Amino acid sequence: MASGLTDGSRRQPSAKKVLILGGGFGGTYVLRTLVPALKPDDNVETTIVNDENFFLFLPLLHEVATGAIEPRHIAYPIRRFRFRNHFKFVQAVIEKIDLAGRKVSTSAGTLDFDYLILSLGSIPDMSGLYSARQSLFTLKSLEDARRLKNHIIDVFERASVTSDPEQQKRLLTFVVSGGGYIGVQLVSALRDFILIDLARLYNTIDRNLIKIVLVEAESKIIPRLHTNLGAYIMKQIKRMGIDVRLKSRVTHVFDDHIEINHSETMPASTVIWVPGVVTNPLVATVDAQKDSAGRIFVNEYLEVPGFPGAYAVGDCAHFIDPKSGQPIISNAHTGVRQAKVAARNILADIRRKQKRPYIYSSPFEVISVGSSKAVFSFNNLRLYGFGARLLWMGGYSLLVTKTYNQIRVVTDWLLSLVFGRDTIFLR
Ligand SMILES: Cc1cc2nc3c(=O)[nH]c(=O)nc-3n(C[C@H](O)[C@H](O)[C@H](O)COP(=O)(O)OP(=O)(O)OC[C@H]3O[C@@H](n4cnc5c(N)ncnc54)[C@H](O)[C@@H]3O)c2cc1C
User: Per the structure, how many domains does the chain have?
Assistant: First the structure.
């Protein structure tokens, strides 16, 4: 209840300061769990810092890049949360984190803290790639999605006015490097965007020249997926005409072609780089114990050992599941669950109560394959095809933040199913 909240915008002399770094899944769910639960007696001042003034729902970014959803509809202004009068939002770039000194330097000044949440996410892993080209695409921000969509439309415009088949072939070859769940969802949506929505608008282009390639280093796509789900996805993407290269890596990206496995060359004008992530480089500079990807080791309460009051969640955190003895895979679901546990543990600490451990569970998988199919699993239940796609759409439209965006996303999907995806080049 709003009446029970402490006012984060007005400092009380002895207020405990909770500082949340990052406004993604981890950061906003800490905010959404902690702030509404605070009582005036807790005497807490909460501040969240993010470089954008919105929370971005990353799982639908490929739908934005391929014209099915409007960019703004998967972004939610952090200041718009119902309990906005009870926390401070600072739009700034975080520059340095001093865990021992309990302060954080940002482009808007220095902030100190009693409790800290590290939730700065990750960046694309570019290791092993040699690129001489500016037009290598990643998919991590709204700007990435806008740039990619414009580029795809632009190569169609350019291919439509050249009569050189070699030039057309180069322009119309699209390579997605990375066959994890992001790569698979992206390449299948890209294929639908290109072959269903774009190709019919450019009647001077021979469809047979269009080539879409998925390159994956492992011997199967989405290696961790249940065999049946993986086999279904593989069958579908091959049926879609996507050329899948397993046990392969894009090793060099040149201006007009790429190199695969240091040997084969392929003319291509579009390379989208989604083979995995490494933690935010800023987090990798923090003076705490980290893994080889730069993620911070956390204990069962998600605290950073040696730094009382500091927590790491989501893509920043390296959590070893006591059941398997293995580090868990970060995704939006684990980020959200960890955020809720970390927020409750901060509250427990403030109220001198017992903290609770984070217990890892990942009972479901849902991955879309183009605009009409998906796979879904929940424990032993497995669904394939259009039914799974409906579940995927229903689930994600509910998860998108707030009714306002939920309605806009569902409307976009319905409109793009009826009228096709958006093909405007937006400067
Ligand atoms: C294209 C894509 C598709 C995905 N699809 C799925 C999916 O289908 N299912 C799933 O479970 N997971 C998916 N994920 C993974 C999931 O989105 C991440 O695991 C999750 O976002 C991690 O949450 P986080 O809070 O750690 O990081 P993020 O959500 O990335 O949040 C980090 C925040 O920190 C901000 N930030 C970073 N550096 C700074 C700085 N120096 N100063 C200020 N602010 C900063 C960023 O702007 C961002 O708001 C996908 C990821 C991507 C990129």
Answer: 2
